[in-house]
Design goal:
Elements lengths: L1 H14 L5 H24 L18 H18 L7 H21 L10 H4 L9 H4 L1 H14 L4 H5 L1 H18 L3 H4 L8 H25 L3 H12 L1 H19 L6 H32 L1
Helix pairs in contact: 1-12, 2-11, 2-12, 2-13, 2-14, 4-7, 9-11, 13-14
C-alpha cells in the first residue's frame, strides 16, 4: 500500500511540473525501442564491418552531429523570429523552411563527392547517417508543433493531428509508389525524398495523440511511468551509455555473431544495465553539483 501511494504521489507531483507527460512517455518508449533495435542491428551484422576498429563509430556521421548542427540552425531561427507568441506568418515560415529543405536536399546529394567536411550536411559515404539535409526538418517541425503542444487553447487543433497524419501518409504513399521524380523518391532511408518524409511526419502526428491516450488511460501504472520519465529526462546519457556498452561488447566478447533471438534477450538485458548505469551517473552528477 505504501509503495502504491508513493507511486501515485510521484505521478501527481510530476503533473504539477512544466513537462508534458505524454511526450516524456513517448520519449521513454523511444529509448526502449532504440536499445532493442540497436541490439538486433549491432549483434546480427558481420563482425568485420561493424566494429569500432572498422571505423563505424569513429568516422560515421551519427545523430549527434545532426543534433549539434540542428541546435545551431534553431538558434538562427530564434534570432530571426524572436517574438513570442509568433504570428501566423511566422508559423507559416517554419512550414516553408521544412518544404524548402525537403525539395533542395535531393538536389545537393552526390554533387560534391565524398568530402568529409560536407558529409555531416549531405551524408555522402557509406557510414554517413542522418545528414543535416534533410533530417533538420524534424527539429523545425518540433518547433512548429510546440505552439499546439504547449497551448491548451489549441486542443481542437491537436485532436485533428490524426486526420492530418493519415492524410500525409496517404499523400506520401501515393507519391512514393506512383511518381518517379528524383526529388520525391531519391535515396535510401538516410537520404530520402519528400514522399518518405511525408509518411514519417504523418506517423508523428498520429503517434503523439496515441501516446497521450495511452498515458491518460494507464497512468495508474506508476512503476512503468517512473522508468519512462527517467529515461526521457536523461535521453542523451542513456544514448551514450548504450552505445559504449555495445561497442565494447563487440570488441571484447565478439557478440556481433549472436543469433537474432539471443540478441533480443541481450537487448532486454542492455535496457536494465543502461538504466542502472544511468541512475548511478545521475546520482553522481547531483552529488557533484551539490558540492559545487
Amino acid at each position: 500500500m505504501r509503495q502504491t501511494i508513493k507511486g501515485e504521489n510521484h505521478i501527481s507531483d510530476y503533473k504539477k511540473s512544466q513537462r508534458i507527460e505524454y511526450l516524456d512517455f513517448a520519449r521513454g518508449l523511444a529509448i526502449l525501442f532504440m536499445i532493442l533495435q540497436h541490439s538486433l542491428i549491432v549483434y546480427a551484422v558481420n563482425g568485420g564491418e561493424a566494429t569500432l576498429l572498422g571505423g563505424i563509430f569513429l568516422l560515421s556521421v551519427d545523430i549527434f552531429q545532426l543534433a549539434g548542427l540542428s541546435l545551431i540552425f534553431m538558434s538562427l531561427i530564434r534570432y530571426f523570429l524572436p517574438r513570442q507568441p509568433w504570428t501566423c506568418g511566422e508559423w507559416f515560415s517554419l512550414l516553408l523552411i521544412i518544404m524548402i529543405v525537403l525539395v533542395v536536399s535531393p538536389l545537393l546529394w552526390g554533387k560534391f563527392g565524398n568530402n568529409p567536411f560536407l558529409s555531416p550536411f549531405l551524408g555522402d559515404g557509406e557510414t554517413k547517417f542522418f545528414p543535416f539535409f534533410p533530417w533538420v526538418v524534424y527539429p523545425v517541425f518540433g518547433m512548429f508543433l510546440s505552439r499546439f503542444l504547449l497551448n491548451p487553447k489549441d486542443n481542437l487543433f491537436f485532436k485533428n493531428f490524426i486526420i492530418a497524419g493519415f492524410s500525409l501518409i496517404i499523400i506520401g504513399t501515393a507519391l512514393w509508389t506512383q511518381v518517379s521524380n528524383a526529388i520525391i523518391v531519391q535515396g535510401d532511408y538516410h537520404r530520402s525524398g519528400i514522399a518518405v518524409h511525408f509518411v514519417i511526419i504523418g506517423f508523428i502526428l498520429i503517434w503523439l495523440p496515441f501516446c497521450e491516450t495511452v498515458f491518460n488511460q494507464t497512468s495508474q501504472y506508476s512503476f512503468i511511468y517512473r522508468i519512462l520519465f527517467f529515461w526521457s529526462r536523461n535521453t542523451t546519457v542513456v544514448y551514450f551509455i548504450q552505445w559504449v556498452l555495445y561497442g565494447w561488447g563487440i570488441l571484447i566478447f565478439g557478440c556481433e555473431s549472436l543469433p537474432v533471438t539471443i540478441s533480443l534477450f541481450v537487448g532486454i538485458g542492455m535496457c536494465i544495465l543502461c538504466h542502472a548505469l544511468t541512475k548511478i551517473f545521475v546520482k553522481l552528477r547531483e552529488r557533484y553539483q551539490s558540492v559545487c
